[in-house]
Amino acid sequence: MRNLLFLYLLVFAFSCQSIFAQTESETKDSMIPTAKLFDEFLNTIGSEDRSARIDALLSELQNNPNSKTVVLFYCGKECYYGEFEAHIRGIKLKLNFRGFDSSKFIFIYGGYRIKSEMQFWVVPKDGGLPLPESTIEFEDVKFKGTFKGKSKLKFIPYDCCDY
Questions:
Q1: Are the C-beta atoms of 41 and 76 separated by less than 8 Å?
Q2: What is d(CA 155, CA 25) in angstroms, rounded to the nearest whole number?
C-alpha cells in the first residue's frame, strides 16, 4: 500500500513539473518583443556626425530586415518652430539618397528636454514602441523663430539643423 501511494505521489510530482514548465514557456512565447535603444545624441552635433549615425542605423536595419526604427525627437528648452519637421525632412532625404525604404521609420515627437536630442530605437517585428519621456514642461520652453538652414549648398543629405 505504501509503495502504491509513493508511486502515485511520484507520478503526480512529474505531472506538476511538466504542467508548470509548459505554462512558463507559454508565457515566454507570448511576451511582446521590446524596442532597443540604438543611439541617442544631442542635436547640436554636426551634420556629418548625424549622417554617420544614420548610416550605422541603416546598416543595423539591413542586418535585421524585419525590424523598424522609431526616431524619437525631443525639442530643447530653446526650440525653433518647425525643428521636428526639419529633422524628418533631413532624415528622409538621407534615406532617399541611400535608396532606403522610409516606411521602416516611425517619427515621434517626444516632447521637451533641457537640450534638443534625438533617439534611434530598433523595434523587432511585432515589438512594442518606446514611450517618450519628456523632462521639462511646455511652459518652460522658449520658442524661437522658424529655423532657416545655414548651408548655401543646394543638396546635402542631412543638414537640417546646425546650430
A1: no
A2: 53
Torsion of CA 8, 14, 17, 18, to 10 degrees: -120
- The residues near 153 (Cβ < 8 Å, ≥ 6 apart) are 159
The interaxial angle of helices 83-98 and 47-63, nearest 10 deg, is: 60
Report, as an integer, the average pLDDT of 44-52: 83
Q: In whole angstroms, what is the distance from residue 122 CA to residue 72 CA?
A: 11
Residues 115, 75: Cα–Cα separation, whole Å: 7
Q: Which residue, among 103, 95, 96, has the nearest Cα to 58 in the 3D structure? A: 95
* Cα 122 from Cα 105, distance rounded (Å): 10
1 pLDDT above the threshold of 80: no
Neighbours of 41 (CB within 10 A): 13
Which range of 1-10, 12-21, 92-101 scores highest in mean pLDDT? It is 92-101
Quote the pLDDT of residue 10.
47
Exposed e or buried b for every residue in 131-150, given b needs 16+ CB within 10 A? ebeeeeeeeeeeeeeebeee
